[in-house]
Amino acid sequence: MLALRRSLTKALAARTQAPQVCSSFATGPRQYDGTFYEFRTYYVKPSKMNEFLENVKKNIHLRTAHSELVGFWTVEFGGRVNKVFHVWKYDNFAHRTEVQKALAKDKEWQEQFLIPNLALIDKQESEITYLVPWCKLEKPPKEVHVLWWNKSADSRAAGRHQSHEDPRVVAAVRESVNFLGSQQNMLLIPVSFSPLK
Q1: Backbone phi, then psi, for 48, in 5-degree steps?
Q2: What pTM does this model have?
Q3: Is 34 helix (H, G, I), strand (E, B) or coil?
């Protein structure tokens, strides 16, 4: 299971018949660090979730031929369900632009992956994120991996309870909470083809 805590700045879009696309753009000194990660969230029509996941599983190789997939999860709880969350790695913004241009020319990807899935998605969100300086993204030593590692939802709850009693954690949260614009927690389940489990 994956528990994810993210600070979010959301761009709001008016609801239309076509899928919504919301995007946050990175600013500040970290944008010059090069490598970044794009967090993509797709809100799938409830009756189409199985069809969407089967099509992605069958055709994900068409997308990963262009850039690195870090992980792909379904949302167990934490906001709306029938949602998938995936993370893509890019060397820099020029790399992402090259990938988008290549995908626009890739007819097989468009016909087998993109077009069939567009009709199944209500809304899309995209965010650019950078690793904090003290963090490394590595393959986990166990099958279960999380951005905040937990064996289960119950172990996560126990860990949070324990951390709330630690004065160092309480002080760190108290000092940093003024910088938090918003926060979202999700419990994510990795799909079979996700590199991170």
Answers
A1: -115, 5
A2: 0.70
A3: coil
CA gap 91, 96 in Å, rounded? 8
pLDDT at 128 over 80: yes
pLDDT in tens, 54-98: 999 999 999 999 999 999 999 887 777 889 999 999 999 999 999
Query: 3-class secondary structure for 168-187?
Result: HHHHHHHHHHHHCCCEEEEE
Tell me which H or E stretch contains 79.
none
Q: Report the amino acid identity of residue 78.
A: G
Contact (Cβ atoms closer than 8 angstroms) between residue 158 and residue 45: no
Residues near 120 by Cβ (< 8 Å), separated by ≥ 6?
A: 44, 45, 48, 51, 52, 55
Extract the runs of DSSP E, i.e. beta strands, from 2-110. 2-7, 20-24, 36-44, 68-77, 83-90
Phi, psi of 95, rounded to the nearest 5 degrees:
-60, -45
**Of 23, 40, 17, nearest in space to 119 by CA:** 17
**What CA–CA distance (Å, rounded) separates 135 from 5?**
15
Tokens of 68: 């690195």
